[in-house]
Amino acid sequence: MSGNCCVLPQIASPATLPVYRLCPQGSNRFAILFDPEQAGVSLVACFEIFDPGGATPPNLHGRAIEFFYVIAGEGEAYCDGKRTTIAAGDMLLIPATGLHEIRNTHEDQRLYVLTLMIPNEAFIELIRAGVPDRLDESDLAVLQQLRTIPRGPSQARVTAAIA
Prior knowledge:
The chain has 163 residues and is mainly β. It is 11% helix and 37% strand.
């Protein structure tokens, strides 16, 4: 992508997004918004949906930063041995090499997170190598609400590397 090009908005419904689980028994689904091919830059953007009790395995990235915005639900985030609770509206920035994990602490509700990784460190390849899945009616109801969020001052908490 040259310096003078814009990536125009993609008009898509959450129902049309490609969705994957990393493995058949995986507790998280990834609905892909942008990948490096679509965006023309090395980034991954997806909705990550944690089933009740679901979690990412502890992981770290050599160069990539990872940003999480909690859309709905509650859970816990860990980074380099530090812990914080997370809830709808919270934002979390994980630096490169930060050993981190996100966990849905509820047994009866899902955790919905917008996840961004820059640059892509084989994340999109990992997702696409998983098992194709779909969003159900509950997922669609949560994600469709994003179209109606009022614009205005945010009440979000920002947690940088779980200070």
